[in-house]
């Protein structure tokens, strides 16, 4: 039957790609696919279950959909993704509104799960998380000018604070042939900004045994008709000289590098089971800045890992003051069950960890303000993303701003600027962390 199936995706861009794959499978099965659960036969909620805040968001979303069911505006509810993979039994016991579940190894079972749930069954599909099929079609849901290319699934790094390997399986790269074929299709559709993603893109190809590397993949991607190629995430210990040379040489690869370091104290880094020391991180950042003076560095940081005292925290702050990283995501340590860090001695009180997050966010906001002020009077290439009628101006992003993560540029223009076009904008002001300007 031609069921109406609604999709909602929570969490990261990697999860969004899985949602897009499920949408394509349902479309190809003849279903009507929508983003509005009201009036749908089945709602498929693709969840994140990485940290406490993500779990809370997923449960809230389940309860909202359950309320639609109760009101007779939704027939069935399927929950997919990391939350179902991690809390299968708890969902069965505590959320009877959920009619079926798909684990992270079973995204491609979505069509049969819809059929089963509509027939009155309660499907539970939990396939091998190490063998998911990653080369299917997608229903791309991002704006026409931007799309993600997920080059690998899973992670084998084994950081002490992270549960992702248990939810997503070991690291497995997609073939370069499949990736280039998908990227060619995106380029033909008019995608201008390709965002290369994986839990760790730097280890791409190491598991394939065919000589594939990220540097080689990027070189091939640069032959395609993209304007910007953006990279998320590069692990510091795996950034090679060859990779730096390719990023610096290829004009399509923008000099915005997301390199999660998590901390800057060697003791904390070792406890995290990270593979870099502070000195090695500093050396890498110096090398990147020497190769690309305009590089914008983004990182992820965790405050409050067990064993982090005032001295360790102050060392992190000193590092940030010295390095002046332009972008940072700052997170409070979440003691996730099943991780090494959850069982460590020296747990930091949550209110102390929260206060440290506030201090780092404040420190980083001042650094970002100074970086923005340095842009005043310069001319920057901006990807226009539309017109904000309320603000009376166009909005867009520079190379220094990744989609749905960083800031924006609000700008005026004498003529029409279509969404998806690149324009040169003279930066004239700073507003609440965003830049303002006018088209030259």
Can you walk through the features of this model?
With 440 residues, the protein is α/β, with parallel strands linked by helices. Helices cover 34% and strands 23% of the residues. α12 (310-323) packs parallel to α13. The mean pLDDT is 96.
Structural class by secondary-structure content: alpha/beta
SS elements, strand count: 19
What is the average of the pLDDT values? 96
Portion in helices: 25-40%
Main sheet characteristics: 6 strands, parallel
Labels describing this entry:
19 strands, 440 residues, six-stranded parallel beta sheet, 13 helices, alpha/beta
Annotate the secondary structure layout.
Layout: E1 4-9, H1 13-28, E2 32-34, E3 42-47, H2 52-70, E4 76-81, H3 82-86, H4 88-94, E5 100-102, H5 110-118, E6 124-125, E7 146-150, E8 152-153, H6 164-168, E9 172-173, H7 176-188, E10 193-197, H8 214-221, E11 228-232, H9 241-249, E12 253-258, H10 266-271, H11 278-291, E13 296-303, H12 310-323, E14 327-332, H13 350-375, E15 379-388, E16 393-397, E17 409-412, E18 422-431, E19 434-439
Parallel strand pairs: 1-2, 1-3, 3-4, 4-5, 5-6, 7-10, 10-11, 11-12, 12-13, 13-14, 17-19
Antiparallel strand pairs: 8-9, 15-16, 15-18, 16-17, 18-19
Helix pairs in contact: 8-9, 12-13
In brief, what are we looking at here?
This protein has 440 residues and is an alpha/beta fold.
């Amino acid at each position: 039957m031609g069921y109406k199936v609604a999709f909602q995706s929570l969490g990261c861009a990697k999860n969004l790609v899985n949602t897009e794959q499920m949408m394509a499978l349902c479309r190809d099965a003849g279903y009507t696919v929508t983003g509005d659960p009201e009036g749908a036969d089945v709602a498929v909620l693709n969840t994140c279950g990485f940290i406490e805040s993500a779990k809370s968001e997923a449960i809230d979303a389940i309860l909202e959909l359950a309320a639609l069911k109760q009101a007779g505006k939704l027939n069935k509810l399927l929950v997919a993704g990391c939350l179902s993979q991690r809390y299968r039994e708890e969902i069965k016991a505590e959320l009877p509104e959920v009619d079926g579940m798909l684990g992270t190894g079973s995204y491609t079972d979505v069509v049969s799960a819809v059929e089963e749930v509509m027939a009155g069954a309660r499907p539970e599909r939990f396939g091998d998380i190490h063998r998911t099929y990653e080369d299917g079609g997608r229903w791309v849901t991002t704006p026409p000018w931007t799309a993600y290319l997920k080059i690998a699934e899973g992670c084998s790094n084994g950081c002490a604070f992270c549960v992702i390997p248990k939810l997503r399986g070991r690291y497995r790269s997609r073939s370069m042939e499949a990736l280039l074929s998908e990227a060619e299709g995106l380029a033909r559709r008019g995608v201008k900004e390709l965002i290369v993603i994986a839990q760790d893109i730097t280890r791409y190809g190491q598991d394939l045994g065919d000589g594939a590397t990220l540097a080689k993949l990027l070189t091939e991607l640069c032959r395609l008709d993209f304007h910007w190629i953006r990279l998320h995430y590069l692990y510091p210990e795996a950034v090679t000289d060859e990779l730096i040379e390719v990023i610096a040489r290829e004009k399509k690869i923008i000099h915005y590098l997301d390199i999660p370091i998590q901390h800057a104290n060697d003791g904390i880094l070792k406890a995290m089971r990270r593979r870099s020391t502070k000195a090695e991180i500093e050396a890498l950042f110096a090398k990147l800045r020497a190769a690309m003076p305009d590089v914008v560095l983004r990182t992820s940081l965790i405050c409050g890992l067990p064993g982090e005292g005032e001295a360790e925290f102050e060392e992190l702050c000193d590092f940030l003051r010295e390095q002046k990283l332009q972008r940072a995501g700052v997170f409070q340590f979440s003691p996730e069950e099943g991780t090494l860090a959850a069982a460590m001695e020296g747990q930091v009180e949550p209110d102390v960890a929260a206060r440290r997050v506030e201090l780092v966010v404040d420190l980083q906001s001042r650094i970002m303000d100074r970086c923005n002020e340095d842009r005043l009077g310069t001319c920057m290439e901006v990807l226009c993303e539309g017109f904000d009628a309320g603000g009376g101006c166009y909005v867009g992003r520079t190379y220094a701003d990744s989609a749905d993560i960083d800031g924006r540029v609000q700008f005026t223009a004498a003529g029409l600027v279509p969404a998806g076009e690149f324009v040169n904008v003279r930066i004239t002001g700073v507003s609440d962390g965003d830049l303002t300007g006018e088209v030259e």
